[in-house]
Amino acid sequence: MASTLLNDTFLRALLREPTDYTPIWLMRQAGRYLPEYNATRARAGSFLGLAKNPDYATEVTLQPLERYPLDAAILFSDILTVPDAMGLGLSFAVGEGPRFAHPVRSEADVARLAVPDIDATLGYVTDAVREIRRALTDGQGRQRVPLIGFSGSPWTLACYMVEGSGSDDFRTVKSMMYARPDLMHRILDINAQAVAAYLNAQIEAGAQAVMIFDTWGGALADGMFQQFSLHYTEAVVQRLKREHDGARVPVITFTKGGGLWLERIAQSGVDAVGVDWTVNLGQARERVGGRVALQGNLDPSVLFAPGATIREQARAVLESFGNHPGHVFNLGHGISQFTPPEHVAELVDEVHRHSRAMRAAGGVAQ
């Protein structure tokens, strides 16, 4: 699947190389805020019908790139594909979040868990990766932008697996963690093996960077985060293929609410750390030094403001990081389904415009 990248700014930023401007992509950039996404989802009949069909997944992955000059595509899928492949029975009810028919609650439940056969159970995802790469590439082998693959972190997957659905307080999974840490470690070890195999399969299929979403790591107490979340994210990172087709495959991790542990996360072996909007980006850059790139971190709610305010806040994020290599602009979490699409256009334009002006004014400091 050799191709020439027409725009490799995102990958170079992840590797802390100088770039002409700051690249931007958005978490959940293919989603319900786009009318074309909603139309495709309606044709698919359900969210899982959309996510498990490579043709539909390819279509919605490309939709935001047709609207906006984003610097990366991200595979359209869901973080819960891995526990679904373990046989837990994933479903999405209308108006509700994800739900598992067979949550992992007892010692017997944990004993039955096994790393799934990725090819047999998640082939629709790797098929989608291949199809998206083909769709991004023209007849001369020129690829528009890189493709990001992703997975949930072992801890975040365990939260859904044990709770059986989303949770406000994570009472069930935390009760297991404190009362039966042996069971929790067993779940997390299996998840780490599964996530690594899953991400490696995406890399082999054509993903050019991968991201680990530790959405619920910030729900843990200090000490517990390191033991039950970060340790297993590191176990995933250690197993990943870091080169494919002669190119480095950067790894990003993102812990919502993880600003307290930024320095420790930066030591986990990843190339870049995503930060949420509660973190001061300039201070974060100083805290991690030259170890990793940073991704983030505009408050998604800014996109409900007028265009002038969106542009002002985008400039504030860029100037907080400063004229240095190693910044990928993103939101501090996923884009809201209620976001006006035209406001995203304002954001993308201002990030590109202002970061180019910053480079022209002062070059890029090393």
TrEMBL record:
Enzyme Commission no: 4.1.1.37
Metabolic or biological pathway: Porphyrin-containing compound metabolism; protoporphyrin-IX biosynthesis; coproporphyrinogen-III from 5-aminolevulinate: step 4/4
Subcellular location: Cytoplasm
GO biological process, one term: protoporphyrinogen IX biosynthetic process from glutamate
Location, primary (coarse class): cytoplasm
Stored Gene3D superfamilies: 3.20.20.210
Domain Uroporphyrinogen decarboxylase (URO-D): 23-32, 148-164
Source domain of life: Bacteria
PROSITE patterns to which the protein is assigned, alphabetical: UROD_1, UROD_2
Transition state stabilizer, annotated site positions: 78
Enzyme class: lyase
InterPro entries per record: UROD/MetE-like_sf (IPR038071), Uroporphyrinogen_deCO2ase_HemE (IPR006361), Uroporphyrinogen_deCOase (IPR000257)
Coiled coil: none
One Pfam match: URO-D
CDD domains: URO-D
Record-level GO cellular component terms: cytosol
Keyword Cytoplasm: yes
Single Gene Ontology MF annotation: uroporphyrinogen decarboxylase activity
Signal peptide (residue range): none
Annotated catalysed reactions: uroporphyrinogen III + 4 H(+) = coproporphyrinogen III + 4 CO2
Keywords: Cytoplasm, Decarboxylase, Lyase, Porphyrin biosynthesis
Free-text function comment from the UniProt entry: Catalyzes the decarboxylation of four acetate groups of uroporphyrinogen-III to yield coproporphyrinogen-III.
PANTHER family: METHYLTETRAHYDROFOLATE:HOMOCYSTEINE METHYLTRANSFERASE RELATED, UROPORPHYRINOGEN DECARBOXYLASE
Complexes and interactors: Homodimer.
Family: Belongs to the uroporphyrinogen decarboxylase family.
Protein name (database record): Uroporphyrinogen decarboxylase
Organism: Trinickia fusca
